[in-house]
Amino acid sequence: NIMEGWIPSWFISLNWFLACIPCIAFFHYIILHTNILLRCITTTTSSSSLPSHDKTSHHHHHHHPQHYIIIHHLTKLTALSISITLVLGIALEIYYLNKCPNSLPFRTTTHETATTALGILNDLSVPHWLMFGNLLFALRNRTESIPSSDTDVDVAVLSSDFHPAVFQSLEERLNERNYGIRKAAGRELYQITKRGITLPGPRFDIWVYSEADVRIASSSSSSSQALSLQLMEDTTLTSTSTSTSTLRVVQNLDYTIRDPKLPIDRVFPLRPIRYLNASTSLPNRAETVARMEYGANYMTPVTTRLECAQNVTNGYCFYDVHIKWKGAFLGFVISGVCGLYRILIGRLSGQQRQQSSGKKWDDREV
């Protein structure tokens, strides 16, 4: 993420393509020289198995063709592997250079799910605030729609405001609108999706935070605690003794959250905001919360190749796309692989034919 913030994308793309050259050269080297190695092994094995009086006449015998068959199939497999890798690599790089957009139906469904969920939370008077990527979008004044590469909308609520009665009312109203809600196993996370949509897919995530008191030791040994000094910056501490202080936090200890404990005065009171044409809120010190989660450069948009790969593997870029576009992409991949395969197999087979038509091998050369 740090490198992609200041290195031009064209330079990174150039290096990705250049990185393929030594890989191709390596496979090419293996193909050409495995032929020699197998010839040596075959000649040595067949020579050692003959009686001593037959070794002289063995030089005039033809070698067995098994190693040529192995080389032939190994050549095809290598050429096919290189072709698939290069074509898919080029397709992913083009996708990355276009900011890794998800399909229009995916984005539309995500937007509709978010506005529906936000409206119901407001009707039920459940205080909530934007978190994670959506917090960044709001701080960057990107409030009308989420970026094309983003995959969901995230808000946070307090566990005291999200009690069973509220959850039941939320579930009933979602059902009336053909939506469903489920709890992620082992996590304080609820996910809202349209009926019939399986995860991963367009969704609205509700992260449940609970209040807690964290004791902060004033000695130098406190540096080993999970709560960093950055967390205590501009934060009110309640002194309990000469050596310790108490910090009131809201926390969600999910493994995906970089900073799971937020000082309560950084979250409350909430700041009202319009997001996706619906009413929601930002944390009281939204800029500090974003810096704690994403670093000092949180205002700079960054799209990584890992995010692009996840969008592809999860099917977000092909979500509910017309079959003609899926067929067009499949045709591009197949035609590219076949064309590159024919070029590679012709080159590699030509090199092997040149080697096989060369000088005769005998035991002295081995």
What do these coordinates show?
There is one protein chain. With 366 residues, the protein is of the alpha+beta class. Helix content is 49%, strand content 16%. It is built from 12 helices and 10 strands. Strands 1, 2, 3, 4, 5, 6, 7 and 8 form an 8-stranded mixed β-sheet that branches. Helix 2 (9-48) packs across helix 12 (323-356). The longest helix is centred in the first third of the chain and has 40 residues, at 9-48. It is elongated, with a radius of gyration of 31 Å.
Summarize the structure.
This protein is an alpha+beta fold and 366 residues long.
Number of helices: 12
Task: Report the principal-axis shape.
Answer: elongated
Instruction: Pick out the low-confidence regions.
Output: 1-7, 55-64, 220-230, 359-366
Order of helices and strands: HHHHHEHEHEEEHEEEHEEHHH
Q: Major beta sheet, specifics? A: 8 strands, mixed
How many β-strand runs?
10
Query: Structural class of the secondary elements?
Result: alpha+beta
Radius of gyration: 31 Å
Give the tags:
single chain; 366 residues; alpha+beta; 8-stranded mixed beta sheet; two-stranded antiparallel sheet; elongated; disordered C terminus
Give the SSE map.
Layout: H1 2-6, H2 9-48, H3 55-58, H4 66-97, H5 104-123, E1 129-130, H6 133-139, E2 152-158, H7 164-176, E3 179-183, E4 189-194, E5 203-217, H8 229-232, E6 238-239, E7 244-251, E8 261-263, H9 264-267, E9 271-275, E10 278-282, H10 286-294, H11 305-313, H12 323-356
Parallel strand pairs: 2-5
Antiparallel strand pairs: 1-2, 3-4, 4-5, 5-7, 6-7, 7-8, 9-10
Helix pairs in contact: 2-4, 2-12, 4-12
